[in-house]
Amino acid sequence: GVEVGPQPQGVARADVLDKMRKIVKHGLDFVQLFNEGKEFPPCTIEVFKIMEKVDYPRNKNGEIIAIIHPQLQDQDWQPLKNGDPQFLTLDGEVIPYQGDSTVYPTFINEAAYYEKKQAFVKTEKIKLTAKHLRLSVS
């Protein structure tokens, strides 16, 4: 499956559809080249590994008491460092991120995740190395 976003629920966006078409085309091009015997050299890429889901701050009744801070909103895949603004209470108090390392939040303030108690997902940036790849013909 391919998920390209973000986009609001129930909305079809031309730019997102275009991105999805491009990534599917690249995937099909790869499969064709691989099946034709092309050798792909080793490579290293950066990826984001999910660490944990982060819920909104809540009171003892389970009600949300803070929203995503404006500086974090729309900053998916951008670094969030210790002390950076994370949430903003309804009283205007900033709740900073407190962590030992820089993280890269994603799915920030997605409407589909409110009921799942998820304000965003913390990810870490890691490097993956792939060995060369070539179809082996028997």
UniProtKB/TrEMBL annotation:
Q: Name one GO molecular function term.
A: hydrolase activity, acting on carbon-nitrogen (but not peptide) bonds, in linear amides
Q: Which Pfam families match?
A: AstE_AspA_hybrid
Segments forming domain AstE/AspA barrel-sandwich hybrid: 44-125
Cross-referenced InterPro entries: AspA/AstE_fam (IPR050178), Aste_AspA_hybrid_dom (IPR007036)
Name the gene.
Aspa_0
Q: Which Gene3D superfamilies match?
A: Zn peptidases
**Signal peptide interval:** none
Q: What is this protein called?
A: ACY2 Aspartoacylase
Q: Which domain of life is it from?
A: Eukaryota
Q: Which GO terms describe its cellular component?
A: cytosol
